[in-house]
Amino acid sequence: MIRLNMGCGLDYREGDEWVNVDFNTGVQADVYINFNDPLPFDDDTINYILLDNVLEHINPGEYFGFLEELHRICKSGAIIDVYVPHYSGMYALKHPTHYKFFGIGSFDIFRPEDCFNGERYSNARFNLAKEELLFFHHKLASMRWLTKLPINWFLNFSRNWQLATEKFHLWAPDEIHYWLEVVK
Fold it and tell me: Which residue, among 177, 7, 160, has the nearest Cα to 102 in the 3D structure?
């Protein structure tokens, strides 16, 4: 099983199954790449990809191409585990290289069975296995206990409630977590 830790930063993962990938040669990684170039992995070889606060840094003109590259290198049924700042969260707008913002439904156009108003911008297809709002950043280092509070359950007990939470700004989640299952 091959697992990619894309944009690993300081989160270097040990083990034979992990391949740590980053653009920054100042951090420890197994492979250094430019995320705007084709990924240096063979077709249909990857079982799992972790994108922990990576997608928001992809240039807008390269976003769909990057997702198509992830789709290309993954086996059918592979999981792409995505953490990104929620558009209303305190981390979304602070960083000068955050180009993309995410909310409930951000990956609906990649679903194989339907799409939003017939919109298709990519050939990549993913089933949405998980889409959850996270009130606190999942790696809240200084106060890890906050990530265990039941507020995340409250934000996620139904998709309609998630949409209402966004529409009426009832809460401001820091992050959103997706599990994308690759469909080929």
Answer: 177
